[in-house]
Amino acid sequence: VGLVESGGGLVQPGGSLRLSCAASGFTFMNYHMSWHRQAPGKERELVAHISSTGGSTNYADSVKGRFTISRDNGMNTLYLQMNSLKPEDSAVYSCAARASGIITYKYWGQGTQVTVTS
Asked: Which residues contact 16 (CB under 8 A, 6 or more apart)?
C-alpha cells in the first residue's frame, strides 16, 4: 500500500518537468490527492490539490498559472505538470492521499527531488 513519485530531476530556469505519483493498495478514485513540497530549512508547503473525481483543483499562489495537477483514476496515477520553473521551485515534491471528509492525509509518498538551476 502506498504512493511512489517519479519524474523529478535537474532542469534550467524556464524549463518544464512532469511528476507522476503511482498509487497502489487502496481505492485511488475514492481519495482526494495533493502535491506538497519541502525545501531545505523550510516548512512543507501544499502546492496543489485535486478532488477524487478530478473536478476540482486548487493551487498555491506561488505556482498558479505555471503548474497543473491532474489524475487518471483508471491508471491510479496523479500528475503534476510544472512549467516556467524557477529556482525557488527547487524542493522535494511528495504526493499525498486523504479520504473524503477527513482532514489528515492517510498515505504519503517518499518524494522526488526537483532542482531548478542554471
From this structure: 81, 82, 83, 84, 85
Give the integer Cα–Cα distance in Å for 16 and 89: 11
Greatest Cα pair distance, the chain, in angstroms, is 43
Which three cell numbers, joined as nine digits, stand for 98? 486523504
Model confidence over 53-70: pLDDT tens digits?
999 999 999 999 999 999
Q: Which residues of the chain have pLDDT under 50?
A: none
Residue among 9, 15, 3, 18 nearest 70 (CA): 18
The answer to whether 19 and 112 are in contact (CB under 8 A) is yes
C-alpha cell recorded at residue 50: 485535486
| Cα angle 35, 92, 66; round to 5 | 55
